[in-house]
Amino acid sequence: MNLRTWLFIPLVFAVSASVTAADFGRDEHAARILKITALDWEPYSASSMATGGNAIQHLRNLLGQCAIELQVEFYPWRRAQQIARQPGYLGYFPAWPTEVHDGFVSSGEVTSSHLALMAMEDSDVSVDDIDQAFSEHRIGVVKSYVYPRQFQALIERFPQSIDNGASGELSLLKMLSLGRFQLAATDPTVMEYLAERHGIGEVRVAKMLLEVPLVIAMRDGLDNQDNIALIKRLLSAQAGTPLQGELCTIAR
After folding, report:
1. Phi-psi domain of 208 (left: phi exceeds 0; alpha: psi -120 through 50; beta: other)
2. Angle 71-146-110 (CA atoms, 0-180°, nearest 5)?
3. What pLDDT, in 10s, does the model give residues 190-214?
């Protein structure tokens, strides 16, 4: 073996080590990204907001504790749930627990929302008794939502009172303002935000019904189990539950 060969061998090892280290760095970076689908549900989640919405930003901050980047794709709600079944997605968010479908598992509460019966500010509708409200008034709902069980039970008891023609929250607000129905079932923060943003009158809470957790519906695939475990650990820590071992694990 001549001198030139001896000099060439260390160079080969150095280049190989450099390439390996660079590839490892790229893999490590890629492993620190989680991707979800979401609906436009302002101000909780919104493609129009720089933060992606308040709930999205909260989730992003949560993942940021482990240096994980959150990528969000916005779609109509049913489409968002379908796309989240594909490999490469953590799941869809924000969902009510009743919207965690087969093939997904709930993360547990990330943050919370509310459900109320909303009326226009100038409406004379008042709600003291829930059953009376459902028996005497038309109530608008969004057709793509699976409402919390307590409210779903009312929908099933009073089907003749339900108007499910709204395709989304803005549609629900417009129908309410035009008098298609007297009450709308939604989160008051959402409807108040949209009414102000779009200048569609003023709305009020006719009856606050319940507080509802917002969860991630996480795709229950073998390739997603590390991510599921990580999210649950982060949420346990958020809730103040003592943990054993390290908080952060590499999301694969």
Report:
1. beta
2. 40
3. 999 999 999 999 999 999 999 999 9
